[in-house]
Design a protein that fits this description.
- The complex is a heterodimer of chains A (287) and B (159).
- Chain A is globular.
- The longest helix of chain A has 27 residues, at 16-42.
- Helix content of chain A is 65%, strand content 3%.
- Chain A is mainly alpha-helical.
- Chain A has helices at residues 2-10, 16-42, 62-81, 86-103, 110-122, 146-167, 170-174, 176-191, 196-202, 205-225, 229-249, 255-262, and strands spanning 12-14, 132-133, 142-144, 284-285.
- In chain A, the strands form two sheets. In chain A, strands 1-3 form a two-stranded antiparallel sheet. A two-stranded antiparallel sheet of chain A has the order 2-4.
- Chain B has 159 residues and is an alpha+beta fold.
- In chain B, strands 1, 2, 5, 6 and 7 form a five-stranded antiparallel β-sheet that branches.
- In chain B, a hairpin with a 2-residue loop joins strand 1 and strand 2 (60-63).
- Chain B is elongated, with a radius of gyration of 22 Å.
- The chains are: A mainly alpha (287), B alpha+beta (159).
- At the A-B interface, helix 1, helix 4, helix 5, helix 6 and helix 8 of A face helix 1 and helix 3 of B.
Chain lengths: 287, 159
């Protein structure tokens, strides 16, 4: 047991793929900041009804808030570039995002909180050694995996919490929640091009019941199935398909892309790197 | 380049343990928070709601259709007010319209209660309204409608 725990924290391996995750998380943080700036253009939440988790005195003024979000954007871009203190930039951008989230719980969305958690955790991993602007680093593609594993563990927590809460909810288990969603959004789905016959089949209680049980089983499977090597590839493929379906049918902001980026911590190497360095533009060094 | 984020073996274990305890605590206590924030309960309900705004003036409930009303200020001048000027949240900003209750009915009821209290606190030029009332019709996961009445905190009015 001790040896397993020690290995969990101390094991080192090729961490090149974490550079891709850093770039992806940085882009998602930047997109989140851009959204906040756009919303600020329509009005500042602090000037109207809002519900802070922090004491009201800690909610910034409009100008300070604008500066915070702009800083968050800048830091996210520094993280993407990977050239200078990109891990610290990733961490700081995530912390600023969390602070903004705590200023108004009306703006809380699970996908935003998940993004800040994942970016925060990844900043503790050596994700700045690859996929960075500038010259190649002389070596050092191997690094400790513990923080990347923590990113994976956080993803498992999200799946477990989401699937577990649905499993404990009788309305979810029976398919009632999904059925009502189908009823509420059937016209929009048809308008978006989904055949009316498909919508009609989905909006039946028996179909909704089967799909609900499938969704719960999928989330609970993904919480654990991403870890063993034997089930990992299937879990990654199944999870990708699952999230793409959700992306196509629901508004989840950047959650789909966050999850797919988080899946990278379960990948040992990108296909192009098997057996050695892949050819890439010289300014986008991989090691 | 070495980073302050490169933790030593002991710090790694302490950090990971602290993180897991934090997340477990937030997930397991999500039910204690009306909106379940930090609990990662995705798509918890498919409920809808509709509410009408009223205000109590001299002890009598007066409708505020569409969230708009007129009232006199302390100097007796008639002024116009709108719920939407203060409440811009997509779900709560439309009195009289049936809307999807994002994050569930409990989350939206808690937010609506807060919004009523906020309005009561932030309309100092309305010298008539003693308190605000929301009559909310709730369809929880498509079930039969239920009506709930929420009231703001009482306001001090000169008359």
């Amino acid at each position: 047991m001790n040896a397993t725990v020690r290995r969990w924290f101390d094991e080192e391996r090729d961490v090149s793929v974490l550079g891709v995750a850093r770039v992806a998380f940085g882009i998602l943080l930047a997109a989140n900041a851009v959204r906040a700036l756009r919303e600020l253009g329509r009005g500042y939440f602090g000037d109207v009804f809002h519900w802070p988790l922090l004491p009201e005195a800690l909610v910034p003024s409009r100008s300070v808030y604008a500066a915070i979000v702009a800083t968050q954007l800048l830091l996210a871009l520094v993280a993407v570039a990977g050239r200078w203190r990109s891990r610290e930039a990733l961490l700081a951008s995530a912390v600023l995002g969390t602070y903004v989230l705590l200023c108004d719980r009306l703006q809380f969305h699970h996908n935003r909180w998940a993004l800040f958690c994942q970016a925060f955790l990844l900043s503790f991993a050596p994700c700045d050694r690859s996929y960075r602007l500038g010259p190649r680093l002389p070596s050092a593609t191997a690094g400790p995996l513990w923080a990347a594993r923590l990113v994976g563990l956080q993803l498992s927590i999200i799946y477990l919490a989401s699937g577990g809460s649905k499993l404990l909810d009788a309305d979810w288990r029976s398919g009632l929640v999904l059925l009502e969603r189908f009823h509420l959004y059937a016209s929009q789905a048809i308008a978006a091009g989904v055949p009316a016959g498909v919508v009609d089949v989905l909006a039946r209680p028996a179909s909704a019941s089967v799909l609900a049980k499938g969704a719960i089983a999928t989330e609970l499977f993904l919480a654990f199935g991403l870890w063993p090597a034997r089930t990992r590839l299937f879990a990654l493929c199944w999870g990708t398909a699952f999230h793409l379906v959700i992306e196509a049918t629901s508004r989840v902001e950047s959650f789909t892309w966050l999850v797919l980026a988080s899946y990278l911590v379960f990948v040992r190497r990108l296909p192009g790197r098997v057996g050695g360095a892949a050819s890439r533009p010289h300014w986008w060094s991989t090691s | 380049m070495r980073s302050v984020l490169d933790l030593g073996p002991r710090a790694r274990a302490a950090f990971a343990a602290g993180w897991l305890v934090l997340q477990a605590g937030l997930v397991l206590t999500a039910s204690c928070r009306s909106d379940g924030i930090f609990g990662f309960r995705m798509f918890p309900e498919a409920s809808t709601l509709e509410f009408d705004l009223e205000r109590v003036v001299a002890g009598v409930a007066v409708p505020a259709p569409g969230g708009a009303w007129s009232a006199r200020d302390a100097s007796g001048q008639l002024r116009h007010f709108s719920w939407r000027d203060r409440v811009t949240d997509p779900v709560l900003s439309s009195p009289g319209a049936k809307v999807f209750a994002a994050y569930g009915v409990d989350a939206q009821m808690a937010r609506l209660q807060r919004a009523l209290d906020d309005i009561a606190l932030h309309e100092p030029e309305d010298a008539e309204t003693q308190r605000f009332v929301a009559r909310v019709v709730v369809w929880r996961n498509g079930r039969e409608p239920q009506t709930v009445v929420l009231e703001s905190a009482s306001r001090e009015t000169p008359r």
